[in-house]
Known about the structure:
The chain has helices at 2-45, 50-74, 76-82, 86-121, 130-134, 137-159, 165-194, 196-220, 222-225, 241-249, 255-273, 277-298, 317-335, 339-356, 369-387, 391-410, 414-432, 439-457, 464-481, 492-501, 509-522, 528-542, 545-557, 562-580, 588-602, 612-618, 623-636, 640-657, 666-680, 685-696, 704-724, 730-737, 740-755. By secondary structure, it is mainly α. It folds into five domains: 12-195, no CATH class; 196-222 and 252-299, no CATH class; 303-461; 482-597; 609-759, no CATH class. The protein starts with a helix and ends with a helix.
Amino acid sequence: MTDGTAGQAAPWRRRVNLARAAASRALARATARGWLAWYRLQARISVVKQRDAAKATSLILLAAVALSVLVLQRFRVHLDAYFAADQRFAVLQNVLVAVGSALIGAAAIAFALIVFAVQVNIERMPHAMFRRLSSDRGLLGSFLGAFSLAIGIASAALLFDRRWLTVMTLGAGWATLLIPALLLYAYNRALRLVAPTHHLQFVVADATRSLSDWARRASRAAPLFETPEAERPPLRMKHDHAATTFFRLNAHWTARALDDLRYAVSFARRYVERRDHSAARDALTAAVAINAAYIRAKGKTFYPVVPFFDHPLAVDGFINETLEQLRQEISAATARQDEPAVEIMMRCMSDLARLYTNIDYGTEGASRYHSVLAAGYLSGALETTIQREFTDVAMEGVRLLGATGQALLSRGNSADADHIISKIASTAGASFGRESTRPVVRTCVEELSKLAVTVLVSRSPDPRHIAAAVTQAVYRVALIVLTLPAHPLSDPHGQHLDPYFSASSATALPKQLTDLGNQLIEAKPDNISARDVIQNVLVWAEGLEDAHRDLLIAAVKSRSIFALSLVQSSNQIARVLFALTRAPAARTEAKSALEQAALGLIAGWSWVPADRETVGFVESFRVADHLFEVAMEAHLRGCSDAALRALDVLLGWGFQASQHNIGLGSFESSLMATVAFTLATNGDMKRQLANIVVRLGKADAPAQDMRRRAAREISERAASARRRGYSLSAIDQVLMELDPAAVHAAVDALAKVLTGAAP
Length: 759
């Protein structure tokens, strides 16, 4: 009997064991596939928003639960058979009670550890944020869920009998898996709440939500404040008067956003004191984001400042509070001599100034008052850095101030940028007085160069004033720099001024103007933007003549090598101006004005002193070749009269230099340039010879021995240029391309004029 029973039970046990093994393998495969799918999905979820990730996680969890129910239903019969014995079911109940009790303790311990982690990091937070941390729904909900699940596991063994075996097994399994997940979520949530970056995201989101809610309320209440059409004045600015009235009646509408703004600045202050400048930068970025949300919410309720009138709606308390908070922080950081902190806050001030250029004041051409106000705060901080000799910070401050000026000019607000230009120039002057801060001067010149290019492409209705302001500022700085003693083997002046004047630098004004000129020449005749830019270039060039002449004379008198940069840059600018006369988009009346502006730059040589030392210094720059290239460019662009006048300036310089027998060939070069230009342009050689005869008859004409030497030199030069086959001189290069017989005849006639023989 006993043996038979044992023999019958053995196959049943084998079937149960096989079923259990199959179920284990199936569950293992399903679990592996589930976790693999989970990891793949997590990689994709990382690039979507948080709410989308939560939805995706919920769907995956529901799908996994449904899959587990299906798997368990398939093996339900085997499960019921295995726990049919009372002893095994009792063991299962004991296991559930033990596991539930252990998880309750684990949840309590984890809660204590998380609270400890929060307490360790809580001192980083502003005092006003304690309430938000203590009432966070996600954190409290995760703890409540973990405790509830743990209690549910322990209670399942007491509340349910064998009929609920499948539900008990499935629920206990998933609860056991979810409790650690909830505790991990609570831990990460707590760390996010005290982490600077995530907490600042909460602050910005809270401020944005509050401001957006008030904007929607103002939009809904608009019908209550609209003025009837018959009562509206004929001339009105494009403002949202209904929203303006609503915001004035609810003056507290920015209270929550202001609190969040103060939280962000408080964060920056705390982390600056800890020398954690990266976190401070994030906090100030949050402050800028809150201001952006405020501007977007306020919309068309900003009013411009009216000169000579005190407009109460033009004053904005939110913006004033922001700038004042930053001013105080900059003052505190400066007092501590914390240069990185000052730089970060100045960058924030610049970001705000550029952000405020987007404010809609409801009227065309309104002054960007708040942007100018922020730039004023920034310039005040810049002045302090110069006084404290924070050289690197001052250089960055100048760049930020220049970027603000470019933003204003790009908006067409040239009058608002005037203060910035003068401030950059005064900063250069203040920096020049000290050796430690002198590198700031070069940065100032760089920003003035960028502003000059921005003026050329801006759409200002009247660019004359701002163009003159930039020119005066940079030339005033240049005159200050020229007070440095010159050095024969180096160029101390060019080290500071090359970012604007150098013709060889790709970022300096001459090269930028050349690139701009190439684009304008290719523009079509109906291109209105190109026509406006050409007009801007003309207005800017008309104000260069006097300033360039004075600077050239000062550079020559100080014997500075920087004078060569002036020669090259003026010739390059003149060539661009001549080229623009052929631009299809240029107005007819602008072409002659461009010629006159170009000739004005060249005419500066007439004012250079003609003493022996000055002539010897200037002639080392090969003046004749530079002026000859300009004359040829004018002729190629169809400016024949301007080309002849440029040649006349060249010839006049040669005769002026001939008064000193210094052996540098200035007189001979001017004569050869006359021959090369006349023959290359098919000009009247007799007319040029007559002009030379008139000049030779003046009292200050060269002496007879110098004339004979010049006649001999030009004959030898014409012959040797063709024999060599190459030359660095632009004059000789043109002579080599001409007919040798024509060159020989012209040079021979010129030599006879010089020696007094009949040509």
